[in-house]
Each structure stands twice: as structure tokens, then as C-alpha cells.
Amino acid sequence: MNPIVVQAQVAFEQGFSGEPDVLVQAPGRVNLIGEHTDYNAGFVFPAAIDRWVVFAARKREDGRAVIRSVAHEDEISFGVNEPLEPEKNWGDYAKGVVREFQKLGESLGGFDAVLVGDVPVGAGLSSSAAVEMAVGKGILELNGLDMSGPDLALLGQRAENQFVGVNCGIMDQFVSANARAGHALFLDCRDLSFEQVPLTKEGVRIVICNSGVTRGLTNSAYNDRRSSCENGAEHMALATGQDIQALRDVTLDMLDVYRGALSETVLRRCRHVIAEIERTRKAVDLLKAGDLEGFGGLMADSHASLRDDYEVSGKELDLLVEIAQDVPGVYGARRTGAGFGGCTVNLVREEAVEDLVAAMESRYEKETHLKPEMYICTAVNGAECVQ
Ligand code: GLA
After folding, report:
1. Which one of 37, 259, 279, 348 is at 20 to 30 Å from 310 when CA atoms are compared?
2. For ligand 1, is residue 38 a contact (CB within 6 Å)?
3. 132 CB under 6 A from ligand 1?
4. pLDDT value at residue 200
5. Does ligand 1 lie within 6 Å of residue 382's CB atom?
């Protein structure tokens, strides 16, 4: 059994005595390509990884929720059918999800619960989406409710947008809820249609390198990038007179013709998004055709575009990518997630994994005095009940 599930059972027993009724595991994710495209109605291509948040819970009769976080050594308690306000702490992700169920008119039962996880926090691997999906699925289970994976993902995104106050897109919650083991998920963020694409090519591994730099300033910079994209789409609609709802509706040719309608910064932001949407579509075709070199080349282009045009990389992430690109057997490397700090994702031939780890440990540490953490990943299922 997943060791995090065992840890959750033990923590539950210690905190509340007895056994939980419900155990849900929800994974973190790594995005292979398609960065900062989800809130532009574009495509993304993430996979769920074998790092989870586990929610272990048991009903209680007084309508209160008592939730303990093992990582924070802290507990929150609130009435599940009472008005809820954010408190700017870890508990907001769970409370925000409860708040969304309230808005749907559900009358919920109370519960005791623990949250345990091994998705690194602040590393761009979506620990918060994993909390939302674990709590969301747990609440469905505790209350005998039914909801599709896509709807649960949308509920989690609303919790994060409206309660936590981060204006994120749909990618993280969607993959945490709907992924399939051994596959990456090709998602059209405009209509939420998706395809599970096998990652079964023998002898290829996904390796994540954690730069050890936690994401400072992310929320404001993230929201700032989003506004630039919305600004770009609005100006392009005015300039072209066409029905442009999002940057998905703009081509690089159109951007070039009407470049005068945009500020220099907005132009660069839009160029990244439009090129990245196209790259993601192409990358998925290449992967399906077994062309890993081609896929890796597009990962490199994605990184350069995020570094130069979207400006969401950082010197540590650039260095991790540079080191990986020098290791024979690495097909591709790029920074993944919102950016500024966090992780890179590498597509690596199995026999080159050791060389990659060795190169990171010697060069990265020497140049930054930071210790990179490496995770050799397996693509796993989305949120599921394990009891
Ligand atoms: C964060 C957000 C996602 C997505 C990525 C960037 O992870 O939560 O919605 O926008 O950044 O691709």
C-alpha cells in the first residue's frame, strides 16, 4: 500500500482514535508541456505523479469539521454548514472546497480528518490542487454524493480562485482528479475535452529536479501575467474586429500584423502563449508517433520562450535545464508549473538517469550552493478512494 496512506491511517488513529471511514489519495502533477496556456483556453499536457496528498476521514454527528495537518502540526475546526471566511493559512484549501459544496446547496455532515502528503509544498508540483481534490473526493464519499472528475476539478478551481484568492487555471485540479496511470493527459482547456496519451515507451523516465528555490512573489506575478494575456486578447479583438475570446483565437501571423496594437511587454507575453499552444499540439503528435527527440526539442523551445518572452524562469531553473541538456540521453528539459522557482521536468532515457543525477549533484551544487532534489516519477491515477 502507498506509504502515505499508511501514514494517514496512523495519524488518524493517533489524533482521533479508531479507524477512518474514508481514505482518499490525490496526486500532485508535473506538466510536460503547455505552460501558462490553460487560462488562455489553450492546451496542456500534464501527468499525475507518484506523490500524493491523503485525506483520511470519519463522520461525526455535530456538523463540525475537525481537520489536522500533519505537515503543519496544526488543526482547524469549523461548522460545515456555517458561513466560512478565509484565514490565509493551509486550512483555506479545505475550507474553500467545503464552501463550494455549500454554494451547490448541499447540506453536509461533519467529519474528523487528517491530511498527510509527500507532494513538496511551494515546488510547483500542485500540492494545493492535490489537497483540494483529496478533500473534495473525500466529502463526496462521506456524504454519499456523486460528481464527475471534471466537475470536481472545476469545483476545486473555484475554491482556489474565490476562497484562497489565486487566479489559477484548470490544469492542476483537472489532472489531479482525472489522470490515468501510465498516461499523460492532453487537455483542451476551452471545452475540457481530453485524451489520455500513453507514456508507455520502454526505457524512458520522467525525472523532476527541484531547484530548492521556493516560489516567492508567485501570486502577484501570476495574476500579472494573466492580465497581460487578457489585455492582449482584448486589444487584438479591437484591432482585428474579429471574435477573439482568448489568445487561443489568435495566430502568430495575426500577432505580427497587428503588433502595433500591443505594448512591447504584452506582445512578448502573447507570443509565448500563442506559440506554446501550437507547440503543445505538435508535441503530443510527436509523442504519439514515438518521436522523443522531437518532443524534447519542443520542451527546449518551451523553456526558452518561458525564459525570454514570458519571463517566468530564474537563474537556478535555467541552470538545471542547461545541465540536463548537456547530458547524453536526456531528450528534453524545461521548467514546469507557474515558475520563478520550483522544478524542471526532464524526459530521460532510462540508462541516462544516473548520469543526470550525478551531473546535477556536482554542477548545480557547485554553482548555486543549493542541493537539488531529484524525483524519478511514475505517472499515476487521479484522485481515488483507497478505502
Ligand atoms: C499554475 C496554475 C495552472 C497553470 C500553471 C502554468 O500551476 O495553477 O493553472 O496556469 O501555473 O502553466
Report:
1. 348
2. yes
3. no
4. 72
5. no
The CB of 296 under 6 Å from ligand 1? The reply is: no
> By residue range, what is the domain housing residue 120?
3-199+381-385
Centre of ligand 1 to C-alpha 38, Å, is 7
Q: How far is the CA of 310 from the centre of ligand 1 (A)?
A: 13
Amino acid at 32: L
User: Which is nearest to 117 in space by CA: 328, 376, 383, 310?
Assistant: 383
194 lines ligand 1 (CB under 6 A): no
* Contacts of residue 3, Cβ cutoff 8 Å, sequence gap at least 6: none
Of the residues 38, 172, 249, 301, only one is catalytic, namely 172
pTM of this prediction exceeds 0.90: yes
CATH number at residue 93: 3.30.230.10
Q: Name the residue of 157, 172, 335 to mutate for ligand 1: max ligand atoms within 8 A of Cβ.
A: 172
pLDDT surpasses 80 at 242: yes
- Residue 231 in domain: no
Rounded to whole angstroms, the Cα distance separating 295 from 204 reads 13
Q: 3-state DSSP helix/strand/coil percent for the chain, to nearest 5?
A: 45, 25, 30
pLDDT digits (tens, 9 = 90+) for 93-114: 999 999 999 999 999 999 999 9
Whether residue 274 lies inside any domain: the answer is no
Does residue 75 belong to any structural domain of this protein?
Answer: yes
* Long-range residue pairs from 239-247, CB within 8 A, at least 24 positions apart, any chain: 245/41, 246/40, 246/41, 246/42, 246/190, 247/40, 247/41, 247/42, 247/273, 247/274, 247/277
pLDDT in tens, 42-82: 999 999 999 999 999 999 999 999 999 999 999 999 999 99
Q: Is 172 a catalytic residue?
A: yes
Sign, CA torsion 35/41/45/46:
positive
Q: How many domains does the chain have?
A: 1
Residue 39: DSSP 8-state:
G
Residue 299 lies in a domain: no
Specify whether the CB–CB gap between 80 and 65 falls below 8 A: yes
